[in-house]
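Appendix C reproduces, verbatim, an entry submitted by the partner laboratory led by Prof. M.T., so that reviewers can inspect both the input and the predicted structure.
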Amino acid sequence: MLQYKRVLLKLSGEALAGEDGYGINPEMLERYAEEIKEARDMGAQIALVIGGGNIFRGMSEAAANMDRVQADYMGMLATVINALAFQDALERKGVFTRLQTAIKMEQMAEPFIRRRAVRHLEKGRVVIFGAGTGNPYFTTDTAASLRAIEIEADIIVKGTRVDGIYDSDPEKNSNAHFFSDISYLDVIRKNLRVMDMTAITLCRENSLPIMIMNMNEKGNFTKLLRGEKIGSLVHGELS
């Protein structure tokens, strides 16, 4: 029995790079594709948003002297490269997919149409959303929140390499405090780097819960969908 039937999974571009730090690591791509296949086979409806930071980021050092709008469009194209790689990895495992982009790219992807995306999910296809929101100045976190709300997802899951939300970087501070549950407002007040503030606000205004979990721990994604206590949950105000 699934606790979460329709899920939007947000992965960073850096997650695909693995220890390489840049580009696409084939082993990481295969690992994530296998996790998603297992979840799909359980009956979950899965949508994906992948960042582009492993290839190009609009706010990166490489873009320091560039026009911000131009740099952000380059970042959107980077997310499409990752999306195409993920689509290929999933389809090699027998998972039917559809890639929808916020910028028209008819030769390789459908344009984003909400009703069509929902229909694909209902038919058991994994839907990958590329090119962010199609607008500069918005991150892929915001794109993930927006798409999750539009497709009426039960939850948005952000896959990271740490176990959840901490008050400081657990990889640098062994005494970092872990939050198993936290409210949207507390995330904003404490300025925790869960997602950007626009994304958090969108989720709060639409009562969309956010789960932050370690995607590198095999089986975590399917455990989460079954309702096991994994990661950190961001939701409504705590009593």
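The longest helix spans residues 68-92. Additional entries are available on request from the coordinating office.
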